Amino acid sequence: MMMYKIMIIEDDVIIARVMQEHLSKWGYEAVYITDFKNITEQVVRLEPHIILLDIMLPFFNGFYWCSEIRKVSKVPIIFISSADDNMNIIMAMNMGGDDFIAKPFDLNVLTAKVGALIRRAYSLQGQVNVIEHNGAVLNLGDATLVYHGNKIELTKNDYRILQLLMENAGRVISREEIMQRLWESDDFIDDNTLTVNMARLRKKLAEAGLEGFIKTKKGLGYMVE
């Protein structure tokens, strides 16, 4: 299952940490920032699926940053603020916000709103037919990989490994998680079998010009960066 990344832009570090811990318990990859001068650059770098944005921030307020983020990204934004009068709510929506939560708030309400917005924003993801990363295009329809116009035929296990890694590009996937995905096939997969599968897949990728596409993180697992 895809892990959605939540970016928390809140200058009260206690509140930010509480939100991060709560959302992490629900299976989200929640991160909060501490640099409030270069927020747009951090959004571009982190590529979050949802942003939780406070209005009252150092240097520039949340309305300013929302308009700046909208110049580079359509990421869904939930405003979170104690300034919950109608004017601020209207302003938040007009600046490109998708929802508004008034402080103080119930953490379970926050989680429900995040989940609902993710379902609305990414409900079509299951219908996406390709995943692209660094020029390599994985076709989910015919289980092939295309790179620089060359089609690479994949086995069932090749495809499942690549799909999992490319869906989670930038995140380390443990060997256990990969084996769980492979167990969905009819084959019995143990640690040795995974090693053999991974070696074959890497050889196939290297021959197609994708040497080093899958990185090993010693003691942790594998990833595509």
From TrEMBL:
DNA-binding region coordinates: 128-225
Positions where 4-aspartylphosphate occurs in the chain: 54
Keywords attached to this entry: DNA-binding, Phosphoprotein, Transcription, Transcription regulation
A cellular-component GO term for this protein: cytosol
SMART domains from the UniProt entry: REC, Trans_reg_C
Domain of life of the native organism: Bacteria
Ranges for domain OmpR/PhoB-type: 128-225
Pfam families noted in UniProt: Response_reg, Trans_reg_C
Molecular function as annotated in GO: phosphorelay response regulator activity; transcription cis-regulatory region binding
Record-annotated Response regulatory domain positions: 5-118
Gene Ontology biological-process entries: regulation of DNA-templated transcription
Function statement: May play the central regulatory role in sporulation. It may be an element of the effector pathway responsible for the activation of sporulation genes in response to nutritional stress. Spo0A may act in concert with spo0H (a sigma factor) to control the expression of some genes that are critical to the sporulation process.
Name by which UniProt lists this protein: Stage 0 sporulation protein A homolog
